[in-house]
Amino acid sequence: MNVYQLRALWREQEQSGPPVGLTTNLLARALTYRLQERAFGGVSPSTERLLRSFEKQDPERLRHIKIGSVLIREHEGKRHEVIAVPGGFLWEGRSYESRSIIANKIAGTRWNGPRFFGLRDKRQPEEQPADGSSSLPEMARRQPGPRSSVNARHKVP
């Protein structure tokens, strides 16, 4: 069937206009799904709950890591695997709300979770105020020029 025939079938079956922008392939799949849904029923209650849980997730978290992704970090000779699950992260058989909680438990000290698992650069550029000023004192600001491992705050004449 071509796209025009599929759209006509959609109007006949759904009593409304077809979704705008669907390709022939996607329109055919959507119609097939609707046909199967009518014949055999909709999704199971457990699948419905799973789909609803995706709606409740923090959009920030979804943007950075997908459900089912595995984060691997070796720390002090031990390999740690963290799996992204709906509503949080799974590590050593327990569910946690954030990567930071897991990073803190692994390292024994406070860590930023995304940084600990290598999802963020070690040095994020600091945001500067719109007027170009800095909230840091003059001596604490990074000065241009050569860098060394020696922290010399005062110049020797």
Descriptors:
157 residues; alpha+beta; 6 helices
Shape: elongated
Number of helices, counting only DSSP H or I runs of 4 residues or more? 6
Strand content: 5-15%
Percent helix, as a range, is 25-40%
What number is the mean pLDDT? 77
How are the SSEs ordered, and which strands pair?
Blueprint: H1 3-14, H2 24-40, H3 45-55, H4 59-64, E1 70-75, E2 78-85, E3 88-91, E4 94-96, H5 99-107, H6 113-116
Antiparallel strand pairs: 1-2, 2-3, 3-4
Helix pairs in contact: 1-2
Can you walk me through this structure?
This protein has helices at 3-14, 24-40, 45-55, 59-64, 99-107, 113-116, and strands spanning 70-75, 78-85, 88-91, 94-96. It is α+β, with helices and mostly antiparallel strands. Among the domains are: 3-42, no CATH class; 60-116, no CATH class. The protein has a four-stranded antiparallel β-sheet with strand order 1-2-3-4, with helices on one face. A hairpin with a 2-residue loop joins strand 2 (78-85) and strand 3.
Question: What's the gist of this structure?
Answer:
The protein is an alpha+beta fold and 157 residues long. It has helices at residues 3-14, 24-40, 45-55, 59-64, 99-107, 113-116; strands spanning 70-75, 78-85, 88-91, 94-96. Helices cover 38% and strands 13% of the residues.
